[in-house]
């Protein structure tokens, strides 16, 4: 444990107030000075990266079916709860370009591995002026390995709900900058971010441990707790 400041990442924007992974939600996090944004990326049938969590659009839009089965133009016809369309990664990057906010892009490749998604996404990010180096994360370790082969200086973090034995060795052999864990582990000299924390008592515990970051659906409430510490 160190005395590092815990960074609070707005998980999919601010789902407590606005539709998750929406441009309105992301704009809100920027306007209200969140430390960072966590967001998810899939590929459409015509290989356009889009920002949405699930493999299917049923839960968060008025449509149904898998993202991979839609062309981007078809997907844009469906609406989120506030009437907005599913954002493309291009639209998202335009929104955050030159903004003082950290980004955590999660490759949603653990169910379907979209061919070449890593190269497509990283090329787009490379062309964007970002204030901070982007963090790439995934539950699918092979996605992070592919990223490392393309850019050995990137920040790659493995997502897992499991307890990791010999975590430092695991990180070293897989070229990981950090771990994104569902449950806190006492790991010395490790960038450890915990997801998804909305319980104030749990937030207080993690903030006292000075973890590198937490992901939360209401970054403003978490920031209030941090300021009380």
TrEMBL record:
GO molecular function, one term: phosphoric diester hydrolase activity
One Pfam family of this chain: GDPD
Residue ranges annotated for the GP-PDE domain, each copy included: 6-226
Domain of life: Bacteria
GO biological process, one term: lipid metabolic process
UniProt name for this protein: Glycerophosphodiester phosphodiesterase
Taxonomic path: Bacteria, Bacillati, Bacillota, Bacilli, Lactobacillales
